[in-house]
Amino acid sequence: MALSGQSEGSPDQVNQQAGRQFGGKMTGRFNPAACLAALLLTISHAANAHHSFATHYDTKNIVEISGTLSAVKMRSPHSFFEVDVVAENGEVQTWEVEAHAVPILRRLGINRDTLVVGDSVTFRGPRSRRPEKLLLFGAQIETSRGEQFEMLDSIRKAPENIISDNREGIEGVDRLTGSWMTFITGQRVADSPMPLNDAGISARENFDPLVNPASECVPPNLPSLLMIPYVYEISNYRDTITIFHEYGRLSRQVKLGSTEPNVTDPQFGQRIGRFEGDTLIIESTGFPALTAGLASGWEPNGNGADIPSSEQKKLVERYTVNEDGSKLTLNYTVSDPAYLTEPYSAEVVWYRMPDDSPIYEFDCDAEIASRSTNNAVPIAE
């Protein structure tokens, strides 16, 4: 199948029309000419929940390719597909397509039988900022069977169906228990909202997207970890709260009312917790110095660049649930005088998921993580 709009075999002359916006899996046909604006709007606020989307892909350069799948690697923290595309001059070009990690793909309805080598497929999305690469992010996918998947808007929209807590006799801190999901609000290359001091500004200005802890499968630290659109599972056993993060299968525990700090993984500090009124409060200190300890480039606090932290970092998390138990609000405050002029506060909203929501495996593939990192380019704000 040919690359739309391409001539003379040049990858720079691809069709820059885009299809309509989808909410996960849809049926019907793409209508590229009519709905370019919808895809551009979606992509302009997009983020990749591991690396900075803005430093990897040019959201003003939307391309479409159609061809035959020649390689499929559904992995975490990213997936990659290779597509053999026949140009008008008969030359076969192999394009790379980056996509989400396995848990997100599975929730969209994509499994290892959905996209297999030999299938005809169409991908549409922003092209790599490296012009020498035949690479795009698969924002929209259409299979030869007519299945359509929207990859970006699906991780940044709150659910249409609100799920209330219908459990009987649940009160106090137990109202916060269950499975939750948050959604990325968007990320762009811009100033960080954090009150950075001179050291923070300098560190951010000197950030190199090719030197990134994510490329070595180091998970995001706090508070970045709290913004990833993966399942969060909160449980309570004898006043020990466990927050399980599907991303990386990380667990944080805290014993309510204890003055003895809890440490499950030193990179996430040591915690004490308490329940006051209707609020779960977790205070964390003792973090190691980290290259992305205050913010990651993919989320709104980083906005395109990681921000480091020192051993002086402190984090306070405050969790409350609304009246019907459908929404969990986290207000957090992070401080670090080594990089911030004053403490910084922000809010993250999580939405309740069905009790039987699956937890998918997340095994970070170092080769895939590095492959994605190496596609980044430094860009100015």
Descriptive report:
This protein is mainly beta. The chain folds into 2 domains: 11-155, Beta Barrel (OB fold (Dihydrolipoamide Acetyltransferase, E2P)); 172-373, Beta Barrel (Lipocalin). The chain has 4 helices and 19 strands. The chain has helices spanning 36-44, 102-107, 198-205, 366-373, and strands at 25-26, 57-73, 79-86, 92-99, 120-128, 135-137, 140-143, 148-150, 178-181, 231-237, 240-245, 250-255, 270-276, 279-285, 290-295, 307-309, 314-321, 327-335, 344-352. A 9-stranded antiparallel beta sheet has the order 12-11-10-9-19-18-17-14-13, with no helix packed on it. Strands 1-8-7-5-2-3-4-6 form an 8-stranded mixed beta sheet. A two-stranded antiparallel ribbon has the order 15-16. A hairpin with a 2-residue loop joins strand 10 and strand 11 (240-245). It starts with 24 loop residues before the first strand and ends in an 8-residue tail after the last helix. 44% of the residues are buried. The model is unreliable at 1-23, 26-30 and 32-38 (pLDDT under 50).
